[in-house]
Batch of 2 targets.
Target 1
Amino acid sequence: MLEEDMEVAIKVVVVGNGAVGKSSMIQRYCKGIFTKDYKKTIGVDFLERQIIVNGEDVRLMLWDTAGQEEFDAITKAYYRGAQACVLVFSTTDRESFEAISSWREKVEMEVGDIPTVLVQNKIDLLDDTVIKNEEAEGLAKRLKLRFYRTSVKEDLNVNEVFKYLADKYLQRLKLQSAEETEVVHTSSNKIGVFNTAPHQTAGDLNSREVINLRPNKQRTKKTKNPFGSCRLL
Ligand SMILES: Nc1nc2c(ncn2[C@@H]2O[C@H](COP(=O)(O)OP(=O)(O)OP(=O)(O)O)[C@@H](O)[C@H]2O)c(=O)[nH]1
């Protein structure tokens, strides 16, 4: 259990070629709607949703980045600080599948290794697929990523994608907390050893053994408003 009355906020970037369904996926997840119209994302957009994962309040901030290369310079800046990533390609767009590795590199260059998931969207159009199942699964294996097939249109597997990422992020956070506790524990043992030197004062010890407690989690105060779970900012 993490601290009470605190909620974990996770910045998630959704990336992939144009028209694969990134905006639609975020809209489906945060607003529960799907539209057939294609409106190219200019730069970056963001929506958020609060969920409970393993008893923890989690606020997912979903950043919708433009898939068109012309916006690359703008979108890259928004990867900074991202804590999880969704890589999306479309069942009916071969190029979007082949571009996945380069999208991953772009994100990794900015934020390193963060919880990431590979998503094949538009599986309602499987009859027109241009990517074999083995190819998609092979890519996921090569990149060591969990793989989901979604249809934003039919609302298939969208919730699962974000739940998995939140869960994975929380696991890392807990592991990190445990490691920090371990560091404090080890240092305090060392202070005990120093105590055997008769002329040392507490001040001396503190100046030698500095214990760094880093608030390394991005958290916000818990919102009590039950209607605040989905907002357009
Ligand atoms: N059949 C089908 N169409 C979908 C699905 N998801 C999205 N679409 C359609 O695909 C088109 C592109 O969707 P967007 O969400 O705008 O794509 P995007 O990836 O955000 O595109 P950019 O903003 O250019 O990066 C729209 O016409 C959507 O209605 C799906 O699961 N199935």
Target 2
Amino acid sequence: MTLTDTDTDSFVAALRAQSQRYHHQHPFHIRMNAGHLSRLQIQGWVANRFYYQENIPRKDAAILANCPDRDVRRRWIRRILDHDGTTSGEGGIEAWLRLGEAVGLTREEMIDGRHLVPGVRFAVDSYVTFARTRPWVEAVASSLTELFAPDLMAERLAAFERCYPWTDPEGLAYFRARLTQAPQDSEHALEVVLGHCRSPDEQERAVAALSFKCDVLWNILDAIDRAYAD
Ligand SMILES: O=C(O)c1cc(C(=O)O)c2c(n1)C(=O)C(=O)c1cc(C(=O)O)[nH]c1-2
């Protein structure tokens, strides 16, 4: 099927329109970026988000396992290395642990999951299951929330520096790294999705996958917000 530029433009517009459902609008993030969260609420968010961070490489490994395209795999595998690092002391998961320490948590309490609330576990697990069980292109499409992430990351970095001065600034390196990693990742993911989703049905399923992922992120924050209510 041949796609015209207009078809592609309207598909990209439908994907981008999902930004209206992105978690930058969630009341918990709005309060975070306005400096209205307590130290306990920040710690609860960091400890619970650790479960998301540690599951991202498992989600990406599921996409690799289901993907028959060598070129895509060759590039996708970098995401796993970005998060896991290639040796101890490196990678995004390590950086998140340092963020936790910077806000006053210990590594042990993040790793053993003692603060993990059921709704966060359920939402994160559903994202990993989605990547394992749905067609790999849909799983790639679900990662496209990263198209919307950089503005939120930049806002969050500024908010931490301005409003939560008790955070050790070195702990914010994770957010800085994502400012460049997220656009690279989402650019590749968008290229894959545009290349593989040609029919209206495939395009609809890609938009639905992205919508599902917005639900995952929203539910993570709902669960954290409820567990750490004022
Ligand atoms: O803090 C955030 O707002 C945020 C959002 C997202 C996202 O939009 O999915 C990711 C991340 N962070 C992130 O740190 C990250 O590593 C990441 C990987 C993915 C993905 O779906 O593959 N999303 C995100």
